[in-house]
């Protein structure tokens, strides 16, 4: 496995390329419909080589990765089927839905192996500038091979993608769309709907958006994701989403009744059950709840304090993944939330800040 061709060099295609390109034995060629993305992918060192057309990259490839929106994935499968590809070539995709894609791939010529894939990590950001080599580290990477896929070919694919450091899982495409519909697709609809609701309220109460604080921002972050990508995902997972709409309507009616009846006990149970289930979700991987290695630091509200904290971390060569001021009011101690990539970084930061008399807690 030497020649790898990635079609679509956005967030996901770019991140896969960065993760596998570190291996000297792979040569990664890339193509993107957008000339600007393609140019940037090469100049940022995301790919080894850019090609001018799908045919140019595909005919010599041992592995072809389709990293475009799911509707485009189906068109590309049909397009690739018209080309004279290498014998034993493997085609995989990264689409967020699997059933329609796997069905489309069933039409491919017999000499082509198609293995559906879905790395379960991402971002609301799009484009090659957002790509990161470590995006999939510890995340689940789901494969949906059909019964006709040769075991050796699946191993070959995993041997390339193991450099993403993701954790591999296998299931059939229908089960994939059911589960991912619940943990990913439907929540994106809810996030966008909450934003629509606020937009309507703003028409009569223009000041309301200034009050939208941490809670609203946390739950609606994913409403900033690519509209084209999410349109296509929803169109591919219609059946599962319709079930989820029914369940959601029941859930909202249940909550509505508790509020209408002034049922304090019922509301307490409603929130207690949700909290305890959420807290039991896996935290140490990039599953439903991402890994947080957060450290909170009490800081006096005076100019220069943030640069002092970041300077101390830089002195100890500790990298931050995020920094956020949680509270900063006049004359009141504020709180900085520092996020780290690992527990080790957090512990080092804790020690370094303590030495400079900063109060920290996890
Ligand atoms: N964003 C996420 O969080 C996430 C996570 C896992 C999987 N996915 C899946 O990954 C795929 C890509 O998503 P992304 O977030 O990288 O999107 P993106 O918008 O960052 O990148 C997609 C790229 O594909 C290019 N493209 C579109 N049609 C093309 C075509 N026919 N030929 C060549 N290039 C084409 C676009 O120009 C763009 O650069 C989607 O199928 C999505 O469902 C996304
Ligand atoms: O973190 C985010 O912003 C994401 O939305 C990532 C997310 C998800 O829903 O969890 C989005 C789409 C995917 O197919 C996989 C992961």
UniProtKB/TrEMBL annotation:
Domain Prephenate/arogenate dehydrogenase: 2-289
Keyword list, A-Z: Amino-acid biosynthesis, Aromatic amino acid biosynthesis, NAD, Oxidoreductase, Tyrosine biosynthesis
One term of GO molecular function: prephenate dehydrogenase (NAD+) activity
Pathway the protein contributes to: Amino-acid biosynthesis; L-tyrosine biosynthesis; (4-hydroxyphenyl)pyruvate from prephenate (NAD(+) route): step 1/1
EC class (word): oxidoreductase
InterPro entries xref list: 6-PGluconate_DH-like_C_sf, ACT-like_dom_sf, ACT_dom, NAD(P)-bd_dom_sf, PDH_C, PDH_N, Preph/Arog_dehydrog, Prephen_DH
Domain ACT: 294-362
Organism: Shouchella xiaoxiensis
Top-rank taxon: Bacteria
Family: Belongs to the prephenate/arogenate dehydrogenase family.
Protein name (Swiss-Prot/TrEMBL): Prephenate dehydrogenase
Catalyzed reaction equations: prephenate + NAD(+) = 3-(4-hydroxyphenyl)pyruvate + CO2 + NADH
EC number(s) given by UniProt: 1.3.1.12
Tagged with keyword Transport: no
One Pfam family of this chain: PDH_N
